[in-house]
C-alpha cells in the first residue's frame, strides 16, 4: 500500500491492525484458547486439545511468514522486537520465560488472556494488565536515580552472557549464514508441515471444528499483522517510496515547519507481529499521557482491538459479567503475577504470543528457549499450588517444589517428598 501522505498511511495501517485485532479477540474468546489453560490441561488432566490448538497456530504462523517473506510481503529481518538480532541473550530468554510462566499462572492468564478477559468484564484482569504494563515500562525505562543499578540487576548479566551471531539468531542464518534467506522457506515448510501433521493426524482434534477453525484464524491474524506492518509506504514528490519508519525518521526533512501527525517514536513503526508485553507498555504510556495521539502505536491498536472483539463476543454469547477479587489472598496472587510477568516479559522479549507464536514464526532461536522456560514455570507453579492445596500445612514450599520437579521428571523419583494423589 503506497500513500502520498504519512498521516493517511499511518492511520490506514493502525485501522487495519485494529480490525484484525477485533477478529483475534472475538475468536480467542469464542474458541476458549488459553496458553496457560493448555499447560494446565496437560498437567492436571493429560488433555492435549488446547495445546494442539497452540501448535496449529504456530504452524500456520511459521508457514505464513516462511512463504510470504521470500515474496517481499513480510520483512521479519527489521522487526520490532528484533527476533533475529545478532545477540542471542539466552539467559534472559530462559529466565524471563520462567518468570513469565510463574506470573501468568498466579495472574490467571498470560498477556493475551488477560486482555481478552478485560473485554468480558473481568476487573481483576484490568488490574493485572495495568501492573504488567507499568512494571514492564520501568524495566525498559528505569527511573534516572536507579538507572544503572536496575539495568545491571536485570540486563547487565544478561548482556554479558549473550552469544553473538554475525548473521542473526534464526535457524536459517545459523545453518546457512548469508544464504539464510534462501534456507528459511525450506525450514518453514519442514517445521510447519511437521507441526501440522502432528496435530491434524489426531482424529479427536480434527473433529473439533471450534478448536481447528479458531487456531487457523488466530494463526492467520498473526500473519496478517506481519503483512500489514511490512507493506505500508509513503511516496514523495519524486515517486521514491519510504517505509513509515524511514519517513518518520526523516520527518524534519519532509515537514520542517510542522509536527502535526508526527509520532512520538519511530521504534514501533517497524514490521511486527502480535505481542502483548510491549503493547501493554505502550497502552499504559498512552493512557498515562492523557491519550496523546502521538503515542498511538500498532500495539495500542492490538490491545484495543482484542478488548473490543472479546467484548462483542461476550455480548453475543451472553457471557459478559463483572468479576472482582474473591479476597485479599486472591488480590495478592494477581498482583504478584502481574509483577512477575512485567519483569519476565522484557527479559524474554515477549510472551506466549510474542515469543510463543510471533517469535516462532521467524524461526528465531530465542522463541523455543523462552517458550520452554515459560511452560516450565507455569507447570511447576501449578504443581506447587496443587500439593499445597492437597496437603495444606504439611506441604511446605520446598516439599511441594521438589515433588513438582519429580512429577515433571526433572528430579529422580527417590527425592519425592509428598505422595502423588
Explained architecture:
It is found in: Cell inner membrane. Belongs to the TsuA/YedE (TC 9.B.102) family. By secondary structure, the chain is mainly alpha-helical. It has one domain (2-415). The protein has helices at 6-31, 35-45, 49-68, 90-106, 111-119, 123-140, 147-160, 171-176, 180-200, 203-206, 209-229, 244-249, 251-254, 277-288, 298-316, 328-348, 354-361, 366-391, 397-407, and strands at residues 2-3, 87-88, 163-164, 233-235, 241-243. It is globular, with a radius of gyration of 22 Å. The model has no long low-confidence stretch (mean pLDDT 91).
Descriptive keywords:
cell inner membrane, membrane, transmembrane, mainly alpha, cell membrane, Sulf_transp_TsuA/YedE, globular, 65% helix, 421 residues
